[in-house]
TrEMBL record:
UniProt xrefs under PROSITE patterns: GNAT
Protein name: Putative acyltransferase with acyl-CoA N-acyltransferase domain
Signal peptide residue numbers: none
InterPro entries: Acyl_CoA_acyltransferase, GNAT_dom
Keyword vocabulary terms for this entry: Acyltransferase, Transferase
Acyltransferase among keywords: yes
Name of encoding gene: elaA_2
Record domain N-acetyltransferase: where: 1-92
Database matches in Pfam families: Acetyltransf_10
GO molecular function, one term: acyltransferase activity, transferring groups other than amino-acyl groups
Length: 94
C-alpha cells in the first residue's frame, strides 16, 4: 500500500503541498514510491499547472525527492523526532 496527500490552499500565492507520502514496508524497494510520486506530480501538474509544489521530506530521502526536481529550501528541522527538510519544485513548462 502507498499513499500521498495533495493539499491546495485557497491562497493563489501559496504552493501546492504534498504530504504524508507513505509506502508500506513490504513494498519498499519495489519502485512503488517512484510510481506514487510520478502520479502525484502528474496530478498536481494537471490540476494546477502554474503552481510550484512543496513538501517536507524526511532528510534521508532528500536525494529521492531531488530526482523529481525538488530542491532544498530550508535547513534540516525536527518533526516528531525525525529530521526533515523543506523542499520545493518550481513550475515545469512543457
Amino acid at each position: 500500500m502507498a499513499y500521498a496527500r495533495i493539499l491546495k490552499s485557497d491562497d493563489d500565492l501559496e504552493p501546492v503541498v504534498i504530504g504524508r507520502v507513505i509506502v508500506s514496508e513490504a513494498l519498499r524497494g519495489e519502485k512503488v514510491g517512484q510510481q506514487l510520486m510520478s502520479k502525484t506530480l502528474e496530478t498536481c501538474t494537471h490540476h494546477w499547472p502554474d503552481k510550484p509544489v512543496y513538501l517536507g521530506a524526511q532528510a534521508h530521502l532528500q536525494n529521492f525527492y531531488q530526482s523529481f526536481g525538488f530542491i532544498p529550501v530550508t535547513e534540516v528541522y525536527e518533526e516528531d523526532g525525525i529530521p526533515h527538510i523543506g523542499m520545493a519544485r518550481e513550475v515545469i513548462q512543457a
